[in-house]
Design brief:
Elements: H1 7-26, H2 32-39, H3 43-71, H4 73-93, H5 97-125, H6 130-161, H7 164-184, H8 200-223, H9 228-250, H10 258-261, H11 266-293, H12 299-304, H13 307-327, H14 329-347, H15 356-383, H16 391-422, H17 430-455
Helix pairs in contact: 1-5, 1-6, 1-7, 2-3, 3-4, 3-5, 3-8, 3-16, 4-5, 4-7, 5-16, 6-13, 6-15, 8-9, 8-16, 11-15, 11-16, 11-17, 13-14, 13-15, 14-15, 14-17, 15-16, 16-17
Length: 474
């Protein structure tokens, strides 16, 4: 890193980039009813507005991480931000459902370049030690707050200026971060002009395979698992993912080299991160719907209701490094996942005649605290002990597992919630039927978080060795 680059300024840019990426995961959630009416989305289409972003983001993160390692982190970061700005503007101008969904997928492509490059830069600027722990605390705080802030900002903008302003705002935010990145993120002398060979075949096969898998799970909720389309898409997913595995085995620079998963706690940390992602995305999808469709809150009130959750999330992220130093990383992670599970179990008790203070406030405070603690611990564990040359790939992998866990988790949770709502008795009101579906989603999420807490001790069985390789920022 150049001597003129201030670590605090670089951290500010990187944290802002991560904030914009996470913000875009949830900012549309409150606006979904308005988006549905504006472009004619179906119920399944609403889920795809969320999943198109998550799938493209998650499936291409490994490619983005490897590109950051090979082509230069600064270059990939700024390119990703540029794509993100253009895609956000396209979403704001969409007049048809498919155009909106394609634009959301393009946002995910840009985010897939931004997130791993930013995390890789953070790991370089702040070497292992207390400084990195504090930087990861900031990273975790903005990541967690981004989800809740997205719901808040989405509500404010939707109610005051309409749903299209949501995408105008993300475009503006990304443009500001892009300008700051040009100013503050240093250019290294080692950054060349030729892009090394990337595993494009692997990226294409894993992306198509995951899209087919999520599509089959989502469609099964409407047509059943014996539907020919569901079975065909599930078979296509199996073939494509098997093809991906074969490509990775033979490629000279695979997206997911086996050596990475054998480093420290990379493999178990990513496994638990996938479970956390499923819970995270599901929470910010179903909670705003419950508040609007059952409690009758408007977009603005729904957004404001996320402030306590955001505050608890930030508190958990800042608290995590201190807890880890006092009681150990494993105990801290178990505590975070257990708090998350307990809060979701509490939230599964919502009622059709409930209130925000009586049904939502208490559980979301516990959930936010657990999310913040768990995210920081898992992010640190997933990149610990990884050589500098693979730092971007490790950052891409941990973001991949969170996003793909979220996409697959949302597909499953949405299917279960819709099935539970549809099975409500003939005398059940619409609000009660919806509530039963949301309760099911939160209850299953609590079980998933509990499974993550049970798996957390695996992270300490293969202690990471600090990487000794040094390299300049690219």
């Amino acid at each position: 890193m150049s001597g003129s680059a201030r670590p605090a300024a670089v951290l500010g840019v990187l944290a802002a980039a991560q904030f914009v990426v996470v913000l875009s995961t949830s900012i549309v959630n409150v606006a979904l009813p308005s988006v549905r009416d504006g472009v004619g989305l179906s119920g399944t289409g609403m889920a795809w507005v969320v999943n198109a972003y998550g799938l493209a983001f998650g499936a291409l993160l490994l490619l983005g991480g490897r590109a950051a390692d090979l082509a230069g982190r600064r270059r990939v970061l700024l390119t990703g931000l540029s794509v993100f700005v253009a895609a956000s503007l396209a979403a704001a101008l969409a007049t048809e459902p498919w155009l909106l969904i394609v634009a959301r997928a393009a946002q995910g492509v840009g985010a897939a370049a931004v997130a791993p490059a930013a995390l890789s830069l953070l790991m370089y600027v702040f070497p292992a030690g207390p400084g990195r722990g504090r930087a990861l605390g900031v990273w975790g705080a903005v990541s967690g707050a981004g989800g809740a802030a997205g719901v808040l900002l989405g509500g404010v903008l939707t109610e005051s200026m309409g749903w299209r302003s949501v995408f105008h705002a993300t475009a503006l935010g990304a443009a500001v971060v892009l300008a700051a990145g040009v100013r503050w993120v240093p250019r290294a002398s080692t950054e060349g002009d030729d892009l090394p060979r990337l595993d494009l075949a692997g990226a294409l096969s894993v992306t198509l395979g995951l899209v087919a898998l999520v599509y089959s799970v989502t469609t099964a909720g409407r047509t059943g698992w014996t539907d020919p389309l569901v079975l065909g898409m599930a078979a296509a997913a199996a073939v494509l993912l098997a093809l991906f595995a074969a490509i990775e085995h033979r490629h000279s620079a695979p997206l997911l080299p086996p050596r990475l998963l054998s480093r420290g706690s990379v493999a178990p940390a990513n496994l638990v991160m996938a479970l956390l992602g499923a819970v995270w995305v599901g929470l910010f999808f179903f909670l705003p719907l419950y508040q609007q469709q059952v409690l009758g809150d408007g977009p603005l009130r729904t957004g404001l209701a996320q402030l306590p959750l955001a505050a608890a999330n930030m508190a958990g992220a800042f608290l995590a490094p201190r807890l880890a130093r006092r009681v150990g990383a494993s105990v801290t992670l178990v505590a975070g996942m257990a708090a998350l599970s307990g809060g979701l179990l509490w939230l599964s008790g919502i009622s059709a005649n409930g209130t925000f203070t009586g049904d939502v406030l208490g559980p979301t405070l516990v959930i936010g605290l657990g999310l913040g603690i768990a995210f920081v611990q898992l992010t640190g564990a997933a990149v610990a002990g990884v050589p500098a040359g693979d730092a971007g790939l490790a950052g891409g992998l941990v973001n991949t597992t969170r996003q793909l866990g979220g996409a697959l988790g949302l597909a499953v949770l949405a299917t279960l919630a819709a099935s539970r709502t549809a099975s409500a008795g003939p005398g059940t009101s619409h609000a009660m039927a919806l509530t039963e579906g949301y309760r099911t989603a939160f209850l299953v999420s609590a079980a998933v978080a509990a499974a993550g807490a049970a798996l957390a001790p695996l992270l300490t069985r293969t202690p990471a060795k600090p990487a000794r390789t040094k390299e300049t920022t690219r």
